User: Fold this.
Amino acid sequence: MSEQVLRRGNVAEKSKVRTLAQIAMLGAVATVLMLFEFPIPFIAPPFYEMDFSEVPVLVGAFAMGPVAGIAIEAIKILLNFVINGTITAGVGELANFIFGCAFLLPAALIYRKNKTRKNAIIGMAIGTVVMTVAACIINALVLLPAYGAAFGMPVDAFVQMGTSINKAIDSLFTFAVLAVGPFNLIKGIAVSAIVLLIYKRIRVILKGDL
Assistant:
């Protein structure tokens, strides 16, 4: 085996180790950010809390590809599960993972085709819409009934919480569209704005080129 082949093998191995280390690091950062949750009381009931844990997930997806983004998302959910436990038998955590992937995959795939700022914006806009639609459907069909069962509350109780914020909310469907939808739109826009602001500053570390 030639020295040149050995060098290439060493470079590839170092690159793989670096990527794994970055995925682990970003997953840990995302976990920490997930601990700092806050409600948006004028949009949705207080049990819907926003955080910025998708920022490092999206940064990693842009820098290393969609598979790395999914891995970071998975690490975030698993570590949070270990730290905080669950009150929905894992349903909430699974839904969070699905929402995160619904956001990062369109963004990362579109950006990957042509790594420009325009494509990043388009990708994140599409990702925000996909995440919002997924959140509305899954909340209405799975999450809210699961939370109701976990807390011993009828689904109508959630509708009443929504009505206290928006009088137009009078059913589970309108709750999903008028509370869950805007909440996720705001989250997607906020995360996208932060990623656009910080990505250039850390692209040298993560070898991106936005």
User: Anything to note?
Assistant: The first strand starts at residue 38 and ends at 39. The mean pLDDT is 88. The helical segments are 3-35, 54-64, 66-84, 91-113, 117-151, 155-165, 172-206. The chain is about 80% helix and 0% strand.
